[in-house]
Specification:
Elements: H1 10-16, E1 20-25, H2 31-39, E2 43-47, H3 55-68, E3 71-75, H4 81-89, E4 94-97, H5 103-112, H6 136-146, E5 148-153, H7 162-167, E6 173-176, H8 178-184, H9 193-209, E7 213-217, H10 220-228, E8 233-238, H11 239-262
Parallel strand pairs: 1-2, 1-8, 2-3, 3-4, 4-5, 5-6, 6-7, 7-8
Helix pairs in contact: 2-3
């Protein structure tokens, strides 16, 4: 049973199908993670793939997420095992791995993220292990039970192996990369009938494998549609997107004062 000193892991909540809310972090500082976590976001995703995060800024963002109790994920640059090891040692709750296009890649990243039955390199001196002094096997058991591996499905060829990818032991969830699928398939919109069919196909494979689905959404209309096909973890916009949205509204509100006065 979860207690205040042993909170229920993000992985357990994800596997149960709880509705979870997160956002991407695109700005390489610790402040975005601190703000989102303090607001009550369940998780944040440091985006190393498409943002200028380096190991030091990623480390700082993960520290801030841990301080607020939010789960800190990293979208790594590639499925290469050393990318996963780096962020997991920094204390990431889990990894979002791009371009998981085959079951072989899925098996590779699952192994890289775990010790028992896997190939994760061990160090007891890192943040994830409490900077040393603990018992090695206690840490390994805790890490293996809570580390969360999410495979991003964004390549059309992944659809040929989607059932095998979803069923891979150690893959905890599928992330549907609608933007990349849209671009790769030459569609005009991520809401096109063809993309909707692909989304449904991925969702059905996840359901058959008993795996949850994570998705990116820009608004509630998308969230409602994707919830209807089984998604339970929602990445809503990003720190930059939310800042731009709020700033646009603030600018329009203040400018409206001048318009009202002139009238």
């Amino acid at each position: 049973m979860a207690t205040s000193t042993q909170p229920e892991s993000f992985r357990a909540r994800l596997q149960r199908g709880d509705i979870l809310t997160g956002t991407f972090l695109k700005t390489p500082t610790l402040h975005g993670a601190e703000i989102m976590g303090s607001l009550g976001f369940d998780f944040v995703i440091v985006d190393e793939e498409h943002s200028p995060f380096d190991r030091q800024s990623t480390d700082a963002a993960l520290f801030a997420a841990r301080a607020t109790g939010a789960a800190g994920f990293v979208r790594v640059q590639s499925p290469a095992p050393h990318h996963l090891l780096s962020v997991l040692d920094c204390g990431a709750t889990g990894v979002l791995v791009p371009h998981v296009a085959t079951a072989a890649i899925a098996a590779q990243i699952a192994a890289a993220a775990r010790y028992r039955g896997g190939k994760r390199g061990y160090s007891g001196s890192v943040r994830a292990a409490g900077y040393g002094g603990g018992k090695m096997w206690d840490y390994i058991e805790a890490a293996d039970s809570t580390t969360t591996v999410v495979a991003q499905i964004e390549d059309p060829e992944a659809l040929d192996e989607i059932d095998a990818i979803a069923a891979t032991d150690g893959i905890d969830a599928l992330f549907i990369g609608r933007g990349d699928l849209t671009a790769a398939m030459g569609e005009a919109s991520s809401d096109s009938p063809r993309i909707r069919d692909v989304v449904a196909r991925i969702g059905e494979a996840a359901k058959r494998a008993g795996k949850p689905v994570m998705v990116f959404v820009g608004g509630m209309k998308e969230a409602e549609w994707l919830r209807g096909m089984g998604a339970s973890a929602f990445v809503y916009s990003s720190d930059q997107g939310l800042m731009k949205q709020a700033a646009r509204k603030a600018l329009a509100d203040i400018r409206a004062l001048g318009t009202a006065a002139a009238a």
